[in-house]
Structure formats: structure tokens, C-alpha cells
Amino acid sequence: MKYFIFIFIFITYINVSFPFSSQAQTAVPSKSLDENIENLRENIQEKVKEKLSEITDNEKPHPKKAYVGTITDINETELKIKNGENNYEFTIAEDATFANLKLAKIKLSDLKIGQNVLVLSLNKDTLIYAKRIIQVDPEKLENKRLTISGTIADISTTDSVFTFIPANNGGKEMQMKYSDKTEIRSRENKVIKFSDLKKGQKIISVCNQAQNQSYSTLRLISL
Amino acid sequence: MITLESPMIKTLILTIIFGLIVGLGLGGTVFYLRQTQKSNQSPSTIIPTLAPENNSENDLKPSPSPANTDTKITITSHQNYDIVTTSKITLKGSTTLADSVIIISTPVNVYQGTTDKDGNFSQSIDLESGYNHLTISVINSNNQENHINYYLTYSTAKIE
Prior knowledge:
Chain A is α+β, with helices and mostly antiparallel strands. Chain A is built from three helices and eleven strands; from the N terminus they run H-H-E-E-E-E-E-H-E-E-E-E-E-E.
């Protein structure tokens, strides 16, 4: 009887363990699954590397920069300029060139403290070299245009003037002039007419700074 | 002598057949259960899915928050104070204000474009020779706006 029970258990065990042994034999798909996962991991790592290099490249300062400022110190080898709160220091390159307001060549000795200059520089070997120093008039370099969003409060029926309430100026009205040269565009940058603009309409005005309390508009954009 | 008809052999054959039936039954059941479990697990293991982009309907609509909320403009194509060697450049960047108007004012021209639903923009502009003070403004119809100054110098002088 014991013998029969042993045979029964043995045959049952062989049959039960058969599916597991058949799984072990078909280990190839799981191997290809591992390969897929490995490939996927490598692809993700490559993408992450690419993105990281893009970010770091963008954050790395470009070597060629130009700065405007007032000379605060200058000698044969060094130049210091100041623009607002920013101070810049340069090593004057041996092959540096110098120019006056009319872009005529001048000498280093023509540059004095207090003069306004544009410095074209090159960052190389941890030093910032001044390669080209040009005298400038900072007033002429400043972009004095304003871009303001707001609402048309009123439109004159007699003059090319309208009253404008900026969205972010405490409701203080501004008087704006327009002319044939004023470009009037839709939000999608399509040409429209001034007559398309109505009282109460939201617009963006790109204008020059006020002269005689009136701003001359360069472009009006319907929102 | 043991023959096929002897009771011992009969019992042995019956035991083998019974063992086969029980074993195959149990083995088959276990195999089926394991296969079912594996097929349920496999999709999440083999195909990792990326998290969806932030493009829900709420994000596509302009935020109803009041004007002067903090917005940001980032220029990705150039860095501030860069020297460029061509007069025509494409200024690319992004802003936190999606679906808005972007206005780039150079010393001579005004350029207008729009940002896409993700706040990205790309605008081709012409620079004047020398130092260019650009003002870049982003404004949407909810009066949310932001403005930045950018300084680019167009020069063909050799700087090496």
C-alpha cells in the first residue's frame, strides 16, 4: 500500500511541476523583455543627457557680450565701466580697437573717465577682454517706446486723438494721438482700420513717450 | 507469477492513471493561474507611459486672475547682452502667459506675434547695426502683462 501511495505522489508531483519546468524552458521571452527594458532605459538616459546638455549650454554664458556704461577707471591694461548698479571690469586686449561717436578710429589715450562707451568683449581663459571700445551717446541707445494695455475711454470726432485708460495705471487717463503712420492690427496681426476700434474696447498701444502730454502711437492692437 | 490480470498490477495501473489525472489537473490549474497573472502585469512592465502634458482645458483658457499677477518671459535663443553677427535673428522664448500677444520693440520697428497654448513664441526681427535695446512685452486679454528689456549688439567686427 505504501508503495502505491509513493507512486501516486510521485506521478502527481511530476505532473504538477511540469508547467513550471516548461516555463523555465521558455525563458527566452523574459530575456527579450529584459532587453527591451534595458533598451528603453538607455533611450531614456540618452534623452535626459540631451536635455541636460541643452539646459547647461543655455545657462553657460556666451563668450561674446557687449555692454554700455560710463568709464569709471581706465589705464593701459584695464577698463572699468558702470551702468546703473552694474559694474563691469575688462582687460584691454592687445589688439583692441577704439572709435569715437562718428566711428572714426581713436587711441586708448583718448578715452577718459566719465565718457560713455560700448564695450564689445570676449570671455576667454577666465578673463574678459575688451576687444572694441566705442564712444556712444546713451540717450540715443535707449528704447523709449512704451507698450501699454488698456481700454479706449473716448474717441475724438474732430481730431486724431483718443483717450486711453491703462489697465495697470490706477485708472489715470492718457491722451493718445494716431496718424496715417500708426499701424492698426488685430490680435492675429491682420491690418484693420481705426474705425474698427470702438469705445470700451481693450487694446494694446505701442507709443513714444509723451510730448505735450500726448503720446503718439506707433501701433494699436485690438485684443 | 505476476500477470496483467493480477490485482496488484491492476491497482498499480489505476494508481498511475489517477495520479496522472490529479497531477495534470492541478498542474494545469496552477499554469493557467500563473499565465493569467503574468498577462495582467505585463502591460505596465513593458510599456512605461509618460505622464501627460499639462494641457487640461483649464490650462488652455486664460486665467481669470486679476491683472499684474507675476508672469515671466524667458528668452531661449539668445542671452542678454549677446553679440550677434547677423542683422536678422529669430528670437525664441517662452512665457507663463499662454495665448497672449507678444510685442517686440526694437529701436526702429515693432514686431507682433502670439504665444501658443504652452506660452512658447518665435519671432523673426531685424536688428540695427550696433547696440539694440529691445523691449519685449507679453499681454493677454485679461490685462495680465509682463515686460522685459533685452540688449543685443549686432556687429560683424572680428572678436576672437
